[in-house]
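Lab notebook page, bench 4
Experiment: in silico fold of construct C2
Operator: M.H.
Input chain length: 414 residues
Purpose: comparison with the prior construct
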Amino acid sequence: MLYDAYEFQRSMMAGASKMASFGADMLNNPANPFAYLGGGTVVASALEVFAHANATRGKPAFGLDTTTIDGREVAVREEIVLRKGFGQLKRFVRADDNGVVEGGPKLLIVAPMSGHYATLLRGTVERMLPFADVYITDWRDARSVPLSAGRFDLDNYIDYLIAFLEKIGPNEGQGGTHMLAVCQPSVPCYAAVALMSADKNPCRPKTLTMMGGPVDTREAPTSVNTLATERPHAWFEQNVIATVPGNYPGAGRKVYPGFLQLAGFMSMNLGNHMVSHWEMYKHLVQGDGESASQSQDFYEEYRSVCDMTAEFYLQTIDVVFQNHALPRGIMTHRGRLVDPAAITDVGLLAVEGERDDISGLGQTKAALTLATALPDEKKRYLMAEGAGHYGIFNGTRWREKIAPVVEEFITAHG
């Protein structure tokens, strides 16, 4: 009933958004004499903000058409390397007039399955394209996956990561293969590396970079961690899990809906979001379309959310946040113990933001301590001064301060 009620409300607001957008366009049209009356700009700006906030959104595009390598512009195209039920391995192929631009390390960027699409890491991909042959995990919206595809939980997530690395191929060639995990996937990526190391899998990466990941949420717990631990596991199953309605391919699937996740994201910093929309409105009134467009572009991505399967969400709550299974040495994958001591030759880089309000300081760094058999020279820690959670993988600090350290670490261990 919860999902059906949301769909009804969404359809109503989508109509209102279209009407508001139409009204804003009419009032901004130079051919409309009423556009020159007092207050027209103010009303049009208010309608535009309302229309943008309530517009229906789907999966955004990466939109990365070119990059610059050694001072020359190179075309970029997306290629699906491996397609699976709940996600696909996507490669950003760099090519010029002479064909595909080879060389450089192979880098698998693992996007979080935490409500947003992989396009949230557009800035991460864009920054790494001149340096590496970039791949990314492109997860599907669970409401689009039919029940016939089966379940998808944390164990499946780890299976997918191993399958993706094996598809990229043996860890050889110029620079080797490397993995970069942003936030939530730090734990499953770490588990995958431990399992592949124990098996001496030739496709295990040469380095794993973890950025703002909840490896040990007992360290400097944040409001996100508190929310996940102050209620029993059954509460989440009873209060945040819904059934996909019949108008989607995944009808009947139990999910943690994207709209609930977005509500949680927004409520964490509600005051900041209200100020951002007020600033957007003022920029429109003042005719500063460029500044308003920056805010609109951010929220276009931020409000584009997708569902995750109930079993994945609930298992993550249990394993990562409530039982702290990895740092306590009790995490298993399909009945097999995940042993961090099996990691002996994979370089580990832990990156944390000084002002991260989602993964507190020390939570990602804990991964270095757990790898007891890994030599210290293969471990590195970076605390990004002044960076919040999103700032460690997007924006100026990422591009100018953090990415160079990641590139240096990959090069040193490639």
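Observations: Residues 2-28 form the longest helix (27 residues). The radius of gyration is 22 Å.
Next step: discuss at group meeting.
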